[in-house]
Design brief:
Layout (H helix, E strand, L loop, with lengths): L3 E6 L12 E5 H8 L5 E2 L3 H6 L1 H25 L3 E6 L13 H10 L9 E2 L8 E10 L2 E11 L5 H38 L3 H45 L1
Parallel strand pairs: 4-7
Antiparallel strand pairs: 1-2, 1-3, 5-6, 6-7
């Protein structure tokens, strides 16, 4: 089963066509919107002929709309509007600017713009100036300047001046430990150049060990020799007596 069908428009349908156009639409769109509202029907040669007069009127209307849009596009070039909004002390709005907000302000100034014609390419949620595009047709594009201002006096410039020295101070504070670290490293390297106490210790211990070994083993040998000598003397005395 095909997903689309051809219908004859009996009324102008925005973004689709004018009366007398034969359009190809999805089944769901036809069943749920066009046919229930009697905006379209099954095409036939007889019905197309009946709609010729109505179609000519629609074409004249479209030509007039096009002329008005071209004039509006020229008038909108260089237009500036002002929107007053509530915000916090940092200039951030409590609610972002919408297409409806811009369209309402333009309409109040005499420019017949619909919300869907307003193209906002960025989030407008702080006190600032923005460039907004107004697309009236596929080839009709204008730019307007939107100045979003606070509903009270804000000293944002003064706050920025104080923020800069504070940032510089913080940056200097962050760098200070690095400098201290370098000086400590230099001190450690200087200490490392000196002969460590531990280097002399092994020599002293070795010398002490040598002395200890001499005393320990040399002393025993002397005592043994003396004992043998005494024993030998005693033996000689006994032999003489005998």
């Amino acid at each position: 089963m095909p997903r689309t069908q051809k219908l004859l428009l009996v009324e102008n349908v925005e973004s689709l066509g004018i009366v007398g156009d034969i359009v190809n639409v999805r089944n769901g769109y036809a069943r749920n919107f066009l046919l229930p509202r009697a905006l379209a029907t099954k095409p036939s040669d007889e019905l197309i002929q009946q709609l010729q007069g109505k179609r000519a009127e629609a074409q004249k209307m479209l030509a007039e709309q096009r002329r008005l849009r071209e004039g509006l596009a020229q008038k909108l070039q260089g237009v500036e509007i002002k929107l007053i909004r509530s915000c916090n002390d940092q200039g951030i709005l409590y609610a972002a600017i919408t297409q409806q907000d811009v369209a309402n302000e333009l309409n109040a100034g005499g420019y017949a713009v619909k919300p869907r014609d307003v193209r906002i390419n960025q989030v407008m949620k702080r006190i600032d100036s923005y460039e907004v595009h107004i697309k009236l047709d596929s080839d009709l594009d204008s730019s307007v300047k939107v100045h979003v201002q606070a509903d009270r006096k804000l000293d944002l410039h003064h706050r920025d001046e104080h923020a800069a020295p504070a940032a510089a101070s913080e940056h200097a504070t962050n760098e200070a430990p690095a400098a201290d670290g370098e000086s400590k490293g230099e001190k450690k390297s200087k200490k490392g150049d000196k002969a460590p106490k531990g280097d002399a210790a092994p020599e002293a211990k070795a010398e002490k060990a040598d002395k200890g070994g001499e005393n320990k083993f040399g002393g025993k040998a002397e005592k043994k020799a003396e004992a043998k000598a005494e024993k030998a003397d005693k033996g000689e005395k006994k032999s003489k007596k005998a």
